[in-house]
Amino acid sequence: MRRRATIVLHWSTAALLLFVLAAGPGAVALLDWGYALSAAAMAGLAAVFGVMNGPGPKLEGAFRVAHPWMSRGLYLLLAWSAVSLAALQMGRPLPGPEARTVLLVLLAAAMIHAVFNLWRHTALGDGALRRISPSLFHKIL
Length: 141
What we know:
Blueprint: H1 2-23, H2 29-49, H3 61-89, H4 99-124, H5 128-132
């Protein structure tokens, strides 16, 4: 159940991030709140139960050492973006970078995350994409 919830939240949050950025943070309340709730739920699951990802047995060296810290950083950025966007929607923007800037930084980090996991899946053959993909994609992965 937790894995399924994580998969749904992972892809929902990614799609909503793109939609919010396309519309502009603060422009469509339903998108903003959908993203904020999805991102907060994903970060909350990780905070309460721990992250479900791991470096995998084939990942070695600096990548293996950095992996858990990079995951934690990505989840912190995810939580910050959720709070930042929710605060913007409530008319109380957070001090510091604007919500749009936080979301763009998250998008950049997500793109690095995606490329890294594509590399893991293809070059290392560790099934990184299979673990986070909905089961209907498993035959093609």
